[in-house]
Amino acid sequence: MRHRGVRNWPPVWTKARREGKKTVRGEVGILRYVQSISPPSDKCYLVIEHEMQYLVGTLIFDDVTFCRQIGNLLREHVGRSITEIGDLDTSSTL
Question: What's this model's pTM, rounded to 2 decimal places?
Fold first, then answer.
């Protein structure tokens, strides 16, 4: 998956609370929540739990429809590890 030619998976994970500026990279944590913006947007926000903290990541897409499809797919996998989700075959959404 890409946005303007740059890979967007996995997103950079940022600490959900304002104290501190912690960021984490990679396929880490457990997916806890997926939020797409309405009306349809090119952004999908993810919340993960990693090392007893909540972190937020943003996926940005070139195509609003594909963003919605990925958001729906991710919602089906809340509670699974980001590593497992990263291994999913998304070719059916293309």
Answer: 0.87
